[in-house]
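> forwarded from #structure-qc
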């Protein structure tokens, strides 16, 4: 029987010499196209999220979700079918594989899994870097929009640099830039951290073709894929452990150790690049010299699609920015304002679907001027990589503040204000035993009148020492604030408890309704203002917690004024302009169990003078 002759290329720089060992096959061409399709698909997803204001349309829309599942099923069938033909083709080049350079399966798998996790963790959405770098007003650092455009451009330029050949010395310089960018993102303030994040974005996408080429050239696909997925999942779990350490086994050792996680995955990527990055992309992808002119043409097409995606993404950011600027304003001049607190649970309803659009409608219907939303940092890979503050701010046309930063390992707090935020500070409350508790102190300009706000999220009921220290710290913030101040908080204590009294007595505050004893977590307190109304609105499945809302009047004379001391449930006894929205019905006792938003728990209540 006549034996088939197999050829392969040596990969040397000179000549077109071929040697026995490799068959002419379209297999490498298909592999090359699929890998670049996968990388470009990353940019397409980023662009889609820009146009959907940070949300992943695949998972936040049931129609998109169903469509993608169907397309995924069809793609899986196609891969099963074409896989049989590729196996037949691969049968003729198995001997050649032994003669070609092949990557170490453990090193390639570790590097690829680390790269996938890093890309998802920090660059899964272009606004995330800004949330790592955020601080208080008036210098909060770069806004997610337009700075998200800089992140997108950084990722695109990193991919462009990957097409160029680099000397060993340049490879070391690139790896140093990546390590420095990762360190700067963790430790530098505001703009410094943002610029470090941009440098890390360039490094990250520069490594993608090299790490991926090394990954697919491995001779042991099962081993390398298993290693990559294991590293990726370990990264996800460690990221959870860093913040939710109180509720997971071994959490004490991972508490607030994002530095260890980021340092480890960047180190794995750097090692992979130093070992495999010396080879050109043509060698890594197995491209024969006779095919290189064709692949040079394909690179032009890849670059064309890349910059097409980037252009569409920048256009989306620009249009959103222009629309948001038009919505922002100072609100109508008035002496009365309303404040609302809501434990949000990261933008998911009780059935696990995104609740943002329905939440925006609800918040708009309340007419609140100042809103604080607790547990709102969804810029983590295990929550959704979403920027809920940016989404709600743009949707409602409110000024925003978010903090503390994602790198501070809290569950986050969001502030939405119809009126400009003059200044703010982000605080990490004492938490020696439990999860890190956040707080924000702000000053808002209500058309010439400055009012202070303190919003806080205390630790869990089980952490008695944490709650004690947190109450002391917040009471100092309250006491040292101006005479016009509102506290909106989640303090996991009953009315009359130690922590409650600490805020009232040592913080020199008043409870919006001291007769309401059926509360546990959410509280509204104030000082130097005239209380007008108090309401509790049922959540109707949007969250597991109700909304609490209060209205106040800024007194003309901050020294000589009289607060309202009489409670009434009859809205006709107070002026119509201080009424809560009739959209939520009327006074109702007890819990409202129906799946619609309604006043409940013996509210709404209004306050007036005895005379």
């Amino acid at each position: 029987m006549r034996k088939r002759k197999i050829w392969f290329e040596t990969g040397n720089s000179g000549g077109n010499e071929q040697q026995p060992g490799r068959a002419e096959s379209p297999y490498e061409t298909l592999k090359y196209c699929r890998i670049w399709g996968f990388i470009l698909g990353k940019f397409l997803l980023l662009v889609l999220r820009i146009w959907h204001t940070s949300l992943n349309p695949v998972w936040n829309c049931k129609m998109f979700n169903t469509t993608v599942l169907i397309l995924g099923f069809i793609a899986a069938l196609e891969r099963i079918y074409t896989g049989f033909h590729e196996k037949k083709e691969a049968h003729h080049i198995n001997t050649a594989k032994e003669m070609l350079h092949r990557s170490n399966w453990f090193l390639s798998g570790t590097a690829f899994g680390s790269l996938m996790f890093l890309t998802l963790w920090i660059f899964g959405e272009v606004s995330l870097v800004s949330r790592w770098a955020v601080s208080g007003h008036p210098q909060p650092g770069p806004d997610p929009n337009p700075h998200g455009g800089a992140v997108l451009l950084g990722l695109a330029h990193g991919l462009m640099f990957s097409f160029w050949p680099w000397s060993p010395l340049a490879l070391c310089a690139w790896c140093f830039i990546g390590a420095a960018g990762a360190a700067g993102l963790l430790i530098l303030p505001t703009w410094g951290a943002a610029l470090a994040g941009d440098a890390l974005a360039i490094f990250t996408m520069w490594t993608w073709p090299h790490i991926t080429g090394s990954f697919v050239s491995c001779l042991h696909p099962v081993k390398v894929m298993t290693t990559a997925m294991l590293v990726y999942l370990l990264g996800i779990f460690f990221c959870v452990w860093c913040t939710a350490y109180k509720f997971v086994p071994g959490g004490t050792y991972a508490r607030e150790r994002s530095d260890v996680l980021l340092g480890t995955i960047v180190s794995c990527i750097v090692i992979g690049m130093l070992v495999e990055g010396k080879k050109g992309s043509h060698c890594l992808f197995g491209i024969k010299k006779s095919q290189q002119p064709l692949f040079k043409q394909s690179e032009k097409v890849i670059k064309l699609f890349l910059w097409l995606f980037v252009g569409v993404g920048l256009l989306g950011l620009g249009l959103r920015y222009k629309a948001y600027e038009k919505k922002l304003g100072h609100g109508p001049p008035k002496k009365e304002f309303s404040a609302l607190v809501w434990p949000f649970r990261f933008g998911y309803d009780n059935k696990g679907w995104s609740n943002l659009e329905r939440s925006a409608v609800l918040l708009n219907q309340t007419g609140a001027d100042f809103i604080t939303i607790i547990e709102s940092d969804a810029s983590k890979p295990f929550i959704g990589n979403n920027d809920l503050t940016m989404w709600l701010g743009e949707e409602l046309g409110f000024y925003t503040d978010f903090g503390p930063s994602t790198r501070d390992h809290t569950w986050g707090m969001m502030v939405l204000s119809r009126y400009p935020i003059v200044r703010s500070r982000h605080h990490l409350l004492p938490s020696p035993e439990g999860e890190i508790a956040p707080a924000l102190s702000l000053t808002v300009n209500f058309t010439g009148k400055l009012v202070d706000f303190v919003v806080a999220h205390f630790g869990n009921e089980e952490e008695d020492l944490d709650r004690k220290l947190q109450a002391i710290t917040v009471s100092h913030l309250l006491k040292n604030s101006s005479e016009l101040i509102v506290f909106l908080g989640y303090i996991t204590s009953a009315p009359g408890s130690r922590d409650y009294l600490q805020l009232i007595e040592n913080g020199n505050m008043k409870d919006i309704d001291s007769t309401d004893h059926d509360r546990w977590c959410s509280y509204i307190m104030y000082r130097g203002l005239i209380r007008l109304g108090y309401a509790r609105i049922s959540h109707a499945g949007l969250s597991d917690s109700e909304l609490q809302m209060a209205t106040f009047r800024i007194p003309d004379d901050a020294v000589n004024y009289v607060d309202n001391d009489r409670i009434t449930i009859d809205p006709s006894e107070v002026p119509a302009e201080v009424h809560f929205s009739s959209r939520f019905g009327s006074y109702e006792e007890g819990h409202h169990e129906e799946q619609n938003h309604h006043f409940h728990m013996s509210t709404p209540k209004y306050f007036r003078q005895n005379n």
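QC bot note: The first helix runs from residue 27 to 51. The two ends are 113 Å apart (CA to CA).
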